[in-house]
Amino acid sequence: MSGADHMKQPALELKDLRKSFGKTEIIRGVDLAVQAGERVAVIGPNGAGKSTLFNLISGRFGPTSGEVLLHGKRIDGMKPYEINRMGLARSFQITNIFPKLSVFENLRCAVLWSLGYRYTFFKFLADLEDANDRTEELLEMIRLDKKRDILAVNLTYAEQRALEIGVTIAGGASVILLDEPTAGMSKSETTRFIKLIREVTEGKTLLTVEHDMGVVFGLADKIAVVVYGELLAFDTPEAVRSNARVQEAYLGSPVADSQAGGH
Length: 263
Known about the structure:
Elements: H1 3-8, E1 12-21, E2 24-34, E3 39-43, H2 50-58, E4 65-70, E5 73-74, H3 80-85, E6 88-90, H4 103-114, H5 129-141, H6 157-169, E7 175-179, H7 187-200, E8 205-209, H8 213-219, E9 222-227, E10 230-235, H9 237-241, H10 244-251, H11 253-262
């Protein structure tokens, strides 16, 4: 492969991806290529297959057929932790942190593995300067440095989601999957969180499932519209907003018109 070809290689690519549960086909031949550094929002009605698609990419499900490639290497059929080690990290709809550990300890747990410490129980954690320094950097990035010693269970919901973002990016993954990151947040919290996501994923490839159209149009470089397990459209927010098929299948003309007027 030439240098020019390597530069064009997608960070994440799906090739004729299909998933069936019994006789029911949930994902029906999805082809998608996400370039390095792109922020892509995956939208679609409930039951469209968005979560299944994320589960296929992150290794929770194996595909019935088709391929998932991360930087040109096939990852379909691999275990989630193996995919994570190859540079893909995922957060979930439900906050997934250690509630009885402090903010600092939650982040340090994620950092330790990424730095190769694995099961070095004989080392004193306080002496691991590289891990502690990286954890401090993450605390500042997610703006929880003033909450470093508070137990995660005592954070606000938005702060817990921010902590989960920190845990997700702690390993230095180049491809980040976020599953409805702003669900349950107020409008002001959502606005701040969009800004945080943009900052912490700078230079990384982002794929996010999101229902809030304000978040979608404010965050994404491109939008992938999934309807009944098929990719209906994959284009810029402006092109998707004006796509008649998308309006008919999902957005609806009134929503599209209000979004056009609001941005």
